[in-house]
Amino acid sequence: CMQRANRRAGTASTKTRGEVRGGGAKPWRQKGTGRARSGSRTSPIWRGGGTVFGPKPRDYSYRLPKKVRRLALRMALSARRQEGNLVVLDDFTLPEIKSREFVRVMGNFDFDNCLVVTAEPDEKLRLSSRNVVGYKVLPVAGLNVYDILKYSKLMLVQSSLEQLEARLMV
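User: That's the sequence. What structure does it adopt?
Assistant: Structure tokens below.
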């Protein structure tokens, strides 16, 4: 999934033989000891030596063309609609920041988990829902395929539909 790949930290790292501390002097002379020749204690063959082709920090993120992203969003929304898991509300506001109030309102719909999409960022709604497991509130600008597929129900506020249509038809 592109969204999860883009969030990866990519911090796995090992030291190569050049990065391992020490190992400057040749451990023993080249010839005459009967032992295998060796040039450094940091050799990957040795215990405590460097790693050959080990992981290094890297960026796992990638981008998809805008048209592909738009098509994916359309398909995810269509899938939710065909399943009957898309609900459109006239309005969804809370008088104050209270998780209890949010849970009470959502209890009327009998949804286990739900993604609520609003036209503009609604701070009261976001703060009321952020510690309630199984629910997420997003503005239309933040709507993405990953969240649509993650939550079984999708709830759109009527005012967000025009913005969503404009975003998908460009």
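DSSP finds six helices and four strands in the chain.
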